[in-house]
Every structure is written in C-alpha cells, then in structure tokens.
Amino acid sequence: MENAVAKARLNSGLTAGQLRWTRHLVGTAAFLLVWQAVGFTLGAGILAPPSAVLPEFVAMWGDERLPGIIAGSLQQMLLGYALACAVGMPLGIAMGRLPALGFLLHPWLSMLIVTSIASLVPLFILAVGSGFEFRVLVIFTSAVFYVTMVSYDGARQIERRWLDIGRCFSASRVQQFVKIMLPASFPYLLTAARIGLGQSLRGMVVAELFVIVGIGGLIHDAGQEISTARYFALLMLLMMLAWAANELLRWAGWRLAPWYESSRRLT
Amino acid sequence: MIAARTRRALLYMASIVGGLAAWEFAAQGVSRIVVAPPSAVAVSLFDGVSSGRIPQAFAASLGHMVPGLAIAFVIALPLSLALGRSRTVADYLDPVLSALYAIPPVAFVPIIIVWCGFDFGARVTLVALMSFFEMLFTFSAGARNIPPGLIDVGRSFSARRFSLIRSVMLPSMLPFVLTGFRLGVIRAIHGMIVAELFFRAVNLGQIMKRDAAHFDSAGVLAIIVVLAAFGLATNESLKTLEWKMLSQKHA
Question: Each residue of B60-81: pLDDT tens digit?
Fold first, then answer.
C-alpha cells in the first residue's frame, strides 16, 4: 500500500496530502456524475439530478420565510441541546464519582439510551402537545442520555492521584468538582458535547417531521411535490448545518483546550 | 467474588424497584393521560401480552427489522474491508460517506416514500439505512487495525486474496465486527419503530398511535417498555457474547 502511494507520487509529482485531496475531489465528482446520470434517466420526480438541485438550492433562498424557519428550528435545537448538556454533564460526573448514585441510576440510563426517541414521541405529544415545548423536549431527550453516559465514563477514568492531591490541599467538594473533576474529564465532555449535538439534530428532524413544522416540515412538504429537487436542496441544507455545527464544536474544543487532541471521529 | 456479584445484583434490583416506586409516586400527582403509573402500565402490558396482540405485532415488526439489518450487514462488511485495507478507496469514498452520514436518517423518510411506497419495502429500507453507517465505520476501523504482521504471515504462506480475507482478516477484526453489529442492531431496533410511526402505522407503531389517539398513556408506555426491554436485552446479551468469544480467543 505504501509502495502504491510512493509510486503514484513519483508518477504524478503530487505530495501525499495533495494526492489525498485530489482523490477526495475525484470521488465526490464521480458520485455527482453518477447521481446526474441516474437522475437524468429516472427524471426529477424520482431522483432530481444535481443540475436541478443546485439551482433549486439557490432559488429557495428567494423565499424570505426560509431564514426565519431555519433560525426557529436551530433555536429550539440549541435550547434542547443546552439543557441536555446542563443536565447530563453534571449528572454523569456525579454518577461517576458517587458510586451509590452510579449504581442507582446506571440501569435506567442504559435502558433509556437504547430506547428509540421516536417511540417516546407519541407519549410526549400526550404530555405537552405539539408546540415549542414538545420539540425542545424531544431534542433534550435525544441528547441527554448520551451526554450523561459519556460524561459518566469520563468521570470514572479520572486518576485517583489527582483527586488525592486535591484532598491533600483540603479542597472543598465544590472546589474538587470545579477545579479537578471537570478539567480532568474534559476530553470526554467534549466528546459528549459532539455526540449530543449530533443527537440533537436527529431529534430535531424527528420532532419536526412528526408534527410537520420548521425545517422538518419543509422537508415533508418538499417530499409531496412533483419534483424532488426542493427535497434534495433541503437535504443539502441539513447536511451543511450538521457539518457546520460539528466544525464549530471542534474549533471550540481546540480553543478551550488546545492540549487535547479532539479531532478524532467519534460517533 | 460471589459476594460482590450478589451485591451488584441486589443494587440492580434496588435501582429498578426504587425507580418504579418513584415513578408510581410521581404519577399520583399528574393526570393519568400524561403519565400513567407503572401499575397501570403493568396491567396494560399484561392484557396486551395475554391477548396475543403485543406478541403478534412484535413478531411482525421483527419481520422487517431482520431483513433490513441483514441487508445493511451484507453491504457494510465487504465495503468496510475495502475502506479499511485500501487508503486509495478510503480517500475516494470518505467525503461522500461522511456527507451522507451527517444527514439525520429520518430526513430520508420522504424520498423513501417516493421510491418504495409506505409499506414493507420502505420499512426495510429505513432499517437498513439507519443501521448501515454504524456498522460500516466500526467494521472499517477493525479492518484498519489488523496487525500488518498477520497479513505478512498469510502472504508468505502465499494465501490468495479470498483465503487471506477469510482466515486472517475477518478473524482479526472480529472484536470490531461484534461491536459494530451490536451498535447496528440497536440502530435497527430504532429504525423498526421509526418506520412504523413515519410510514403507514402498522404493528407496534399502530398500537402506539391508536392508544395515543385514545389518550391511553398506559398503552403507549406498555409498548415503550417492550421496546426498551428488547433493546436492553439485545444489547446486554450481545455484549456478553462479545466478551465470551474474545476471552475464548485469547485463552
């Protein structure tokens, strides 16, 4: 394999990085070409080709309601996500550091984490209706168990000697928590934040497709149209939002704690 | 050892009993439409199971979960070998795969309706789509982590590509395959219920939607309990299987 890379380099005069990017581009272009060919053959009713989706992606911004709808969806997502982090991170750390609490809550946590959020949606509608609270609740629930679980794992791996040092300097419980436990579990908290964000986005789409509002509502409506161009344009938008959110968190993690390598792909 | 185990089992029981008691107590204060107490859920669950309604619906749900999962597995395994063993293939495919993975799978529901309709085909497709990426990424991490020495040994015995894959690569990536499969199964269970709620409401999804329409939260919770118990049981038993197979391998 190394030989092949070296050979390709000799032949093309590209560095390894350039070769990689060339392949990324070629792979993406090939995907778009196949999509174009298949879409062109089947027609826009079944699979709109990129040549129809890209103009649609530009044209849909002509609708002045779109930025408002996106902002509304993101607002709810961020609120649910922030709540999930605010509850899940301290809870996870507390579970990891207080064995009794860990034992009491862990069985429920491991049960809830494998439960599909979609299955809770009918119950949530009964409980809070289908408005703002509903969507925030679905997003919160999508993320909170993952955030708690990863924070719990993070708190359990804190090295004993760090806590011992804190005790030697007679740090109070609050000081131990803020000055030792939080920084020590930072890489895990960052992972928790990223997994939680991905889950929040999934939760947002589940909630919005179920009650047909926001971006999810637009996606649902676009699915009813004769041409699928609008639908794929919205899918592109969703993909860009997911990508941007992920990059933002990676950047934030790097700014907050540049000494931790946080760019690994964790799902 | 035994004492520690008994203690853990006791704590587990205490957690379940305590949680149920807290739930029962909390449910007293609110309307039964919103949250039914566990005692009412137990009654509803018992009725559903003894009348055969829940087992029947559950079996029918598995009828589209299993094929969806199988399709995803059969595509993910060879593709993960290609991705994990060849830098070139990974370079070509990575951007497209990551882009597709970034899209929340439920967003594909409208296009699946256009392509496959509302019924069996659509449900199988959604389950396959939801379980595919977890398996693909975990499997290919396994393929990347095969010790090069093992492959060299295979090569020096002039093993052909197929036997190299079968007798060296697959056994070596087994831990990752097991973990990926477990994650895939959990996602497939999610896909199973999502499909029943977002396409035509059938099986368990139909029971949930009907009970919700009748403001019967005990009925809805009974199905949630079934799904949660199924997810937990599958997860734990596959974990145990992983652990057993791996400890056997290294013994």
Answer: 999 999 999 999 999 999 999 9
Q: Are A50 and A86 part of one and the same domain?
A: no
Q: What percent of chain A has pLDDT over 90?
A: 45
- Residue A265 above 50 pLDDT? no
**CATH number of the domain to which A212 belongs:** 1.10.3720.10
A chain contacts of residue B193, beta-carbon cutoff 8 Å: 116, 118-119
In the numeric block, the tokens 């920084």 are attached to: A183
CB contact under 8 A, A126 and B212: yes
Residues A179 and A203 occupy one common structural domain: yes
Residue B236 to chain A, least CA–CA distance (Å): 10
Q: Which range of residues forms the domain containing residue A173? A: 65-256
What's the longest Cα–Cα distance across chain A?
74
Within a domain: A265: no
From CA A121, how far away is CA B190, in angstroms rounded? 13
Of B19, B87, B209, Cβ closest to residue A122: B209
Report which DSSP code applies to B102. H
Question: If we measure between CA atoms, which residue out of B199, B230, B179, B222 comes closest to residue B51?
Answer: B222
> Please, what are the domains in chain B?
60-200 (1.10.3720.10)
Secondary structure (DSSP) of A204-241? HHHHHHHHT-HHHHHHHHHHHSS-SHHHHHHHHHHHHH
Neighbours of A76 (CB within 10 A): 26
Give Cα B207 distance to the centre of its chain. 21
Same domain, residue pair A53 and A170: no
pLDDT above 70 for B158: yes
Instruction: Sort out which chain B residues have CB atoms less than 8 A from A231's CB and list them.
Output: 110-111
Query: Which residue, A227, A136, A208, is CA-closest to B107?
Result: A208
Hey, what are A242's tokens?
A: 């997911």
Q: Looking up tokens 């587990």, which residue turns up?
A: B12
B157 burial via Cβ count (<10 Å: 0-12, 13-18, 19+): exposed
**A218-256: string of b/e by CB count within 10 Å (b at 16+)?**
bbbebbeeebbbbbbbbbbbbbebbeebbeebeeebeee
* Euclidean distance between CA atoms B182 and B185, whole angstroms: 5
Q: How far is B209 from chain A (nearest CA, A)?
A: 7
Q: How confident is the model at residue A10 (pLDDT cuts 50, 70, 90)?
A: low
